Amino acid sequence: MDNKKTKTLINFKKTQSLMAKIIRMVENKEYCINIMQQNLAAIGLLKSAHQMLMENHLNTCFKNAMAAKNEKLKQEMIEEILKVSKLANK
After folding, report:
1. Could you say which residues of the chain have pLDDT below 70?
2. What letter would DSSP give residue 31?
């Protein structure tokens, strides 16, 4: 596994751990602001992981598709990027 995938995976594992902590905090009726801070930290980790996945995709799959002579594949890749970008901005 390359370095970027390892960093992405670490972010997902940290988020997983953080989510378990947040669930415990909610179950234990901890202070709302503390829960929200942990929630924002989890969101930050997920956004960072998304950015790393996108960067890797653009430098590998997308780059290869754009170098190919298959116009249908190129269009599909562009549509995928647009679809994911719209979801990320919601």
Report:
1. 1
2. -
